[in-house]
Amino acid sequence: MSPNGKRPGTASAAAGDSAKALRHAMSGLSGPEATGWTGTVAAGGSPGNGTKVLILGAGVAGLTAAYELSTLGYQVTVLEAQDRVGGRNRTARRGDELYEIDKNNNVTHTHTCAFDDGLYLNLGPGRIPYHHRRVLTYCRDFRVELEPYVMETTANRVRPPQAGVTWHNRRVANDTRGHLAAKLAETLMETDAFTGELRDLLRVFGGLDTNGKYRGSTRSGYLDQPEIEEWPVPAPPLSFEDLVNSGFWKARFYQPIDYLWQATMFQPVGGMDHIVMALAREAKRAGARIVLNAAVTGVRLGKAAPGASVTYSKDGRKFSADARYCISNIPIPVLRHLSLGDFSDPFRKAVEGVKFEETCKVGWQANRRFWEGDLGSWDDTEGIYGGISWTGHNITQLWYPSHDYFSDKGTLTGAYNFQEAARTLGDRTPEKRLELAREGAIELHPEFKDKKLVPDDKGVSIAWHKVPYQLGGWAAWKPHLEDHKKAYKQLLQPEGGDTFYVTGDQISPLPGWQEGAMMSAHYVIQQILGFQPLTAPEEVAVPDSVALTQGLH
Amino acid sequence: MSPNGKRPGTASAAAGDSAKALRHAMSGLSGPEATGWTGTVAAGGSPGNGTKVLILGAGVAGLTAAYELSTLGYQVTVLEAQDRVGGRNRTARRGDELYEIDKNNNVTHTHTCAFDDGLYLNLGPGRIPYHHRRVLTYCRDFRVELEPYVMETTANRVRPPQAGVTWHNRRVANDTRGHLAAKLAETLMETDAFTGELRDLLRVFGGLDTNGKYRGSTRSGYLDQPEIEEWPVPAPPLSFEDLVNSGFWKARFYQPIDYLWQATMFQPVGGMDHIVMALAREAKRAGARIVLNAAVTGVRLGKAAPGASVTYSKDGRKFSADARYCISNIPIPVLRHLSLGDFSDPFRKAVEGVKFEETCKVGWQANRRFWEGDLGSWDDTEGIYGGISWTGHNITQLWYPSHDYFSDKGTLTGAYNFQEAARTLGDRTPEKRLELAREGAIELHPEFKDKKLVPDDKGVSIAWHKVPYQLGGWAAWKPHLEDHKKAYKQLLQPEGGDTFYVTGDQISPLPGWQEGAMMSAHYVIQQILGFQPLTAPEEVAVPDSVALTQGLH
Question: How confident is the model at residue B13 (pLDDT cuts 50, 70, 90)?
Fold first, then answer.
């Protein structure tokens, strides 16, 4: 129910049109001075009228809800278990302390980030698609400066799972295109169908000669750099057999062509956490109170009147707080260990069933940006400015920095892996993780052998599934599983009538993405305001978390 | 001959290895304190010993030679006909005056750039490939700040020559991949060859279903943006027939996959002319004298002793200057109209024969970056951050700015065309050019209909083939023509013994590229120093100018 006791506009909030509905709703709220949907729900009006809201967890969704609800006149308190806001939106800098849960289920300090001053690495989300408009809007409105994140360059490398070689992206991409086009041309010739416009398309698509053969292309790079009296010669093509046998596409080589990773992607200048710092700053400015080191231990729903009572510990003492609404941004694997009083059985079952994905990142400081190369002594092993190298090794991928090009030092994401690979890496001590990650990196860049160039003591690692209050990378939704459908639908609906809401990318069509977190926060706000139904639609679509985090698989 | 009368190391300067040769040469010159090739020929030593060099034209090659030779102890004077340095490296800003040669062969003021303060547009070169190491090295050494130039985004548009429609890049790219892969799968199935790894590669390459059919893919974008309870549905695929019939690939759609335009490309922050301003600054700092408004009228080679005498006009008066060496960075179509005394017949014939390409650019100021879109009201016609839309219209391409994203105003390159299209556009008055360019732009973005949003009086245009002292975009070399081979070879060789040299991208394997200009300047310096032979190799490869400026054709 909305604060004034009415639930207006529910019918107009047609499924599939919630952004529009929110836009219309907000402009309606603001009366004659309405300026329409600004992307930050910043229309006038104060429907909250001081109504208390407790938000559990200062992740991206929690902070978004805190900002928006405060702006709408609610009295918002955010309880955050950690000593910082942001959740998985975390940027490592010198002096940052990392903690994980050990085998005996104790929280342990694993290591301290020792990057040089001025260097940083995003340990959680690292990029923003151009169509993630909520994230981009908050960045614009809160003056978070953005710069392009380069997802792919043709100087990046590929180390296919089934071959003991390292190739350049440009050769794998263009020689594969060329061979496939030539193969199609060949089969078309058999039926005299290799003619006209299709023939011309294949020639240009694949870089074929006029007879439909692929003999290599300068698209794959030059054999040697051109000199004044020499025309550049194409690098000789990789053989089709070698490409097919290598299984290179299984190393996520085509992930960059999926919509979520298409150009132009962005990143905040100076680190992804500028987004959560800005959200927290603006939420506070709008009146929200953010309590750090406040670990929620239980939630009890009101029996007599709508509302929730939350218990939490802070500085070794126990506290409790009450509110009309409670929004939980707590990761579901953490939520299920809390004391949940008077929650429904279907809700408990849903919370029990949701799995989170294992995922690790490793970060390196390199004292020279060797991947960019010595400009004065170019050879074709260099010239990497951003992008990702893909490998069949445990590390899965190696990211190069998309910022501070041509400077001296830099940081690299030395592993970003999932599932089995992440379990293997995560089960090791930080030192042993770096050892494994270095092996994978050496296969891509022999320079990693040099521990003065890439020192161990400046390496960082994180196994998100072991991080206290996180326990995973994102909800591992599988669309074909019936119990996942049930759980997803259940979690879209509040508990205790209209009292308790789950939010986060964990209950969004974009698991693992900040846009999903913000979308979920907006949805929950709409439910509280009465512009989205409290009951989930009969048919809900469960996201395919692997596709949404790793591309077509 | 080198200044000390010896010609050392010629044998070591193997063809195809000139950069290495220069590196070795320079470190040899500097004696025990040699630090090797630094990319800027900045090794110690002063072999020039005050020897006079006249450089005709302050384009990229002329400035590069001026800087390097001054650093090496030569006494360098640069004569530049225009009131600015840079040649085709030109960035338009408010107040810049544009001149062209009219039908009666008179130089006319065409218009004044009226962009708002702070806006700019590169009228000449607009991007730097990651493998153009000379340009990158000078930028680093001279502190020209670089930022990524985005060549392609999947939000860009395509208006194929043979279809009256405008499509998104992501749909054309991925639906074509998908259909071609499905077609190959289909033909392979006929012979039961659609199996194993190849089958799996095609599935991932094309986004096929497990039966080898292409039914659309989220790679082509979503039908609607995802909402909380809805899984995003792929945009329906463009039909293969429509794609093939459209001739989209003839609109240079695949140019971005050619090596020269592959990611990561760069541009100087604030305008491409920061490169020539830095080169001129450093050349002067090293002792070079740059004389502006000094139009060369003739060159006479010494008969008795090696050297050249140059006549030029400045402020309505005639001057002459002598030097031991003379390096001409004057575009060949301009050079052939000078009085050339005692040049050889083969040289005259070469200079007569070289054609330059017609090329135009149009620039628009837009008072709102509508292509980026209103973040709060996203629809899939927006989200363009850089990149190029391709069209069969006369304008050929539309560039979006790769800088100052999310700001208010911006400039666009509203046409960049060649040959016949450039002749047609260039023959019009500036007003009529904008009229034609607006028609082409409206087909891509209806917003161009709004002359308040994109005002005529802030539009600029340039037909490089009509610009005084330029007369074209770049040398139109064709590798299969016997007389082009003769001319290219001839122009690699100095005239008057070792006195007069032609330099510029016009006599390099990279016509139209600044890297070619710098490569040529380095080559000429090596010839003067005696580290490259004065006689061209028996076999020279003539560049394919169309491929090098427009991609595979």
Answer: very low
> What is the Cα–Cα distance from B401 to B230, expressed in whole angstroms?
34
Q: How far apart are CA A332 and CA A222, in angstroms?
A: 52
Is residue A126 within 8 A of residue A272, CB to CB? The reply is yes
- Contact residues on chain B for A229, CB-CB shorter than 8 A: 15-16, 492, 509, 536-537, 540-541
pTM to 2 decimal places: 0.92
**Is the separation of the CB atoms in A128 and A136 below 8 Å?**
yes
Residue of B nearest to A148 (CA): B148
Round to whole Å and give the CA distance between A65 and A73: 12
Select from A360, A364, A352 the least CA-distant residue to A420: A360
The answer to whether the beta carbons of residues A508 and A516 sit under 8 Å apart is yes
Convert the pLDDT of each residue in A154-195 to its tens digit. Answer: 999 999 988 899 999 999 999 999 999 999 999 999 888 888
Query: Chain A contacts of B536, Cβ < 8 Å?
Result: 229
Q: What is the pLDDT of residue B29?
A: 26
Mutate which: B169, B222, B228, vs A, most A CBs within 10 A: B228
Tokens of A108: 């342990």
The interface predicted TM-score (ipTM) is 0.91
- Tell me: pLDDT of A41 over 90: no
List the alpha helices (DSSP H) in A95-164.
133-141
Residue of B139, B168, B264, B406 to mutate when probing chain A, most A C-beta within 10 A:
B264
Cα–Cα distance, B495 to B346 (Å, whole number): 10
A385 touches chain B (CB under 8 A): yes
Distance from CA of A22 to the nearest CA of B (A): 11
Q: Helices (H) and strands (E) in chain B — how many of each?
A: 14, 22
The answer to whether A37 contacts B377, with C-beta atoms less than 8 Å apart, is yes
A543 interfacial to chain B (CB closer than 8 Å)? yes
C-alpha to C-alpha distance for A26 and A37, rounded to whole angstroms: 7
Question: What are B468-524's pLDDT values in tens digits?
Answer: 999 999 999 999 999 999 999 999 999 999 999 999 999 999 999 999 999 999 999
Q: Which residues are paired to A179 by β-bridges?
A: none
Q: Are B551 and B254 in contact (CB under 8 A)?
A: yes
Instruction: Decide if A227 and B519 are in contact by the 8 Å CB cutoff.
Output: yes
**Using an 8 Å Cβ cutoff, are A534 and A501 in contact?**
no
CA proximity to B417, closest of B442, B400, B399, B435: B399
Q: What is the DSSP letter of B475?
A: B
**CA-nearest residue of chain B to A19?**
B227
B163 reaches A (C-beta below 8 A): no
Number of helices (H), then strands (E), belonging to chain A: the values are 14, 22
For chain B, how big is the Rg over CA atoms in Å? Answer: 26
| Sole residue written with tokens 């993405």 | A513
- A514-553 as b/e, with b when 16 or more CB fall inside 10 Å? bbbbbbbbbbbbbbbbbbbbbebeeebbbbbbbebbbbbe
A9 half-sphere exposure, CB direction, 13 A CA radius: 21
**What is d(CA A370, CA A398) in angstroms, rounded to the nearest whole number?**
14
- In percent, the amount of chain A with pLDDT more than 70 equals 91
B102 Cβ contact partners less than 8 Å away, ≥ 6 residues apart: B108
| B539: exposed, middle or buried (Cβ count in 10 Å: 0-12, 13-18, 19+) | exposed
Is B249 part of the contact surface with chain A (CB cutoff 8 Å)? Answer: yes
**Tokens linked to A219:** 């698209």
Task: Please give the Cα distance from B372 to B361 (Å, whole number).
Answer: 22
> In this complex, do B543 and A254 lie within 8 Å of one another by their Cβ atoms?
no
Q: What angle do the packed helices B345-353 and B482-491 form, to 10 degrees?
A: 120
